[in-house]
């Protein structure tokens, strides 16, 4: 037997999502135009398959409609809700919504070795299988981090959540600081916001580290620049210090009490948006950390679209991992 034409069309999601995962890791930016052709294929195949189940005449037809309903009316709102509360990034939510439209029911592919995917749930909603697979892949990542950090001798209370990174590498890194001057935090400075700040004041992290007390003085900030959106490679993070701040702190009191240290409030007042939820206090604390330490703990910053892509690949070749595990344990 051959796979249905609609199922073959749906396979376009594999290279598209693979590229999206790679690009999101590299830049944390995905163009909205990526989703339009995938949505078009999803709607086309959904209508095509639906016509084969109309009029509703039997159990299979009703099951198809129920599964489509669950995918569209449960998985899609779930993706939106997770984005709304901050649990998902925008691209992650769009990817899951797109997959819910593309894969409402289980596809079937016939190879010489048999039919794939071999492990299907009783519910039969393929987008939910992709999601549960992705969650399991995501849960495995902290284990990898802990083992990796342990082998490298980087042991701490956050060794399963982050990685120790040289401060000099931060201009091209992604993620969020796990550190403050007093300990660890899950709400540290976002590295994209750090790049925005550096571009805004026309300086570099190297310059800040060379003269932190001078840069801490808000009067040292003159004309400011476009902060961009903090993406790597948008310019500014490695530029020479253009702020007119002296190269040394010889004449600057490091303990001076400024009204707006680092000009943090001015930065957030002048830019559009919130710089990824950054507050003046978070920015000041983060700047103090990155100008006084050589290495910091950084969240891995892996977008959920990566485990989502892996979850899709596993779903197409194996099926539902959770259902398979529960079956092996005799639970289902």
UniProtKB/TrEMBL annotation:
<dbReference type="InterPro" id="IPR000045">
    <property type="entry name" value="Prepilin_IV_endopep_pep"/>
</dbReference>
<feature type="transmembrane region" description="Helical">
    <location>
        <begin position="34"/>
        <end position="51"/>
    </location>
</feature>
<keyword id="KW-0378">Hydrolase</keyword>
<keyword id="KW-0812">Transmembrane</keyword>
<feature type="transmembrane region" description="Helical">
    <location>
        <begin position="125"/>
        <end position="147"/>
    </location>
</feature>
<dbReference type="GO" id="GO:0005886">
    <property type="term" value="C:plasma membrane"/>
</dbReference>
<feature type="domain" description="Prepilin type IV endopeptidase peptidase">
    <location>
        <begin position="12"/>
        <end position="142"/>
    </location>
</feature>
<feature type="compositionally biased region" description="Low complexity">
    <location>
        <begin position="237"/>
        <end position="247"/>
    </location>
</feature>
<protein>
    <submittedName>
        <fullName>Prepilin peptidase</fullName>
        <ecNumber>3.4.23.43</ecNumber>
    </submittedName>
</protein>
<dbReference type="Pfam" id="PF01478">
    <property type="entry name" value="Peptidase_A24"/>
</dbReference>
<feature type="compositionally biased region" description="Acidic residues">
    <location>
        <begin position="248"/>
        <end position="258"/>
    </location>
</feature>
<dbReference type="InterPro" id="IPR052218">
    <property type="entry name" value="Preflagellin_Peptidase"/>
</dbReference>
<keyword id="KW-1003">Cell membrane</keyword>
<feature type="region of interest" description="Disordered">
    <location>
        <begin position="211"/>
        <end position="260"/>
    </location>
</feature>
<keyword id="KW-0472">Membrane</keyword>
<keyword id="KW-1133">Transmembrane helix</keyword>
<feature type="transmembrane region" description="Helical">
    <location>
        <begin position="95"/>
        <end position="113"/>
    </location>
</feature>
<dbReference type="GO" id="GO:0004190">
    <property type="term" value="F:aspartic-type endopeptidase activity"/>
</dbReference>
<feature type="transmembrane region" description="Helical">
    <location>
        <begin position="63"/>
        <end position="83"/>
    </location>
</feature>
